[in-house]
């Protein structure tokens, strides 16, 4: 147990989080012995059954292109033809919290990102999330029992409230808790060393 925590605030359907993935892995590898790494969901878009407006679909496709150019992250644009996009990331957020009960939050996050960005499947849909759970070795009935429980909804709402108190300005965000102070760490999508150096400076103080 370390004295300091590095809090990673993310959303499973945040495309910038997908773009940050490789850099974030390097940061975790470098700091794993110095800080406790904590994952928290941010809740990008509330529950909705409404189809995503065409203007937002176009905006997000442009965002995917920009992230791909900037970070080298791969995207499967078939999603926009094959799926009915909805502006709803809360189901995916609940799914990673449900996986946390099985100590599989991070692998669930990876599974959701893979099916969304590479396999053109929609994580706003329950059947996609159940499929992801099964892929990582969680039985569908056990996963659904937790996913649809009041206990999980309370945990999710508490997490959203907690994140709102942090110095977070979007996703992904990094917040270092050191000596009972919270420090917003600037996310760099292509230079892990810049982030690591910033954190080392604070830890050394």
From TrEMBL:
It comes from the Bacteria. PANTHER family: DSBA FAMILY PROTEIN, GLUTATHIONE S-TRANSFERASE KAPPA. This is DsbA family protein. It comes from Pseudoalteromonas rhizosphaerae.
